[in-house]
Design a protein that fits this description.
10 helices
Length: 256
């Protein structure tokens, strides 16, 4: 499996699509900082951005960045025949699947470090420093997003492998990411209203709290709300379910 894993990591690091994805995010982040800085200067005079606003950009977009990265890497592997070549070279399906899982976790971690390092550099240059967040909060937010991103990457990769890397993987993968993002925003609005008390109750309240507490997609917001134990437990369960289900389905999947 080490041979397959080395091949996956090397191919991912050299992947043109991943480089373009990283460039797109960097451009988006730099553009966001510049535009917001100009707007603040024009509207409020000599006022600068808060670091809080810059340090949460990746958190809020990480669901899409990570999902896109897994789609770029593994749908392409099915399309160009790399998966079939691995099988023909004697690699077991379980080895191919587990190598993909480990590599997706590696790429999610690498993207988190790169993107959030860029955020830190820009916040040091263009902002007045932290306003609402403390250094401890910012560090925890970084860890929370990284851990959640790993779980999301593994789930997304498992889904791609189970679907055989078909074009439908793009629709399903990005559709799930969008659905979780939209639902997550609704959950935050209901559980943490700006005015008044929480208005939902009963089973709906229990479901919303469970989602907000344990589902990795809920932790990609830049505003830590639960302990590291809650975050880790939810991520561990999603990883375990993804790996077990993925192994079973991929081992029986008929590849075209």
């Amino acid at each position: 499996m080490l041979r397959v894993l080395y091949s996956d990591m090397r191919a991912s690091l050299l992947n043109k699509g991943i480089r373009i994805l990283a460039l797109v995010f960097a451009t988006y982040l730099i553009g966001y900082v510049i535009i917001m800085s100009i707007l603040l200067h024009v509207i409020a005079g000599n006022v600068r951005l808060n670091a809080d606003d810059v340090l949460t950009v990746y958190n809020e977009t990480s669901i899409f960045v990570i999902t896109a990265a897994t789609l770029i890497i593994y749908v392409n592997e099915f399309m160009n025949g790399t998966i079939r070549n691995k099988l023909c070279s004697g690699s077991k399906r379980s080895e191919i699947f587990l190598a993909a899982i480990i590599n997706s976790a590696f790429m999610a971690t690498l993207l988190a470090i790169m993107c959030q390092t860029l955020e830190l550099i820009l916040s040091l240059i263009f902002t007045n420093g932290l306003y609402g967040l403390t250094l401890a909060d910012a560090a925890y937010s970084f860890s929370e997003t990284t851990i959640s991103g790993i779980a999301i990457a593994i789930f997304s990769t498992s889904l791609i492998m189970m679907m055989g890397g078909t074009n439908a993987s793009y629709v399903v993968g990005l559709g799930i990411a969008l659905a979780f993002k939209v639902f997550g925003l609704s959950v935050q609005q209901k559980l943490y209203p700006e005015k008044g008390l929480v208005s939902i109750k009963g089973a709906k309240l229990a479901i919303y709290i469970f989602y907000d507490r344990f589902v990795p997609y809920a932790h990609c917001s830049g505003t830590p709300r639960w302990t590291v134990t809650d975050v880790s437990l939810g991520c561990a369960v999603l990883i375990l379910l993804s790996v077990i289900t993925g192994l079973i389905v991929f081992n029986k999947k008929e590849l075209k």
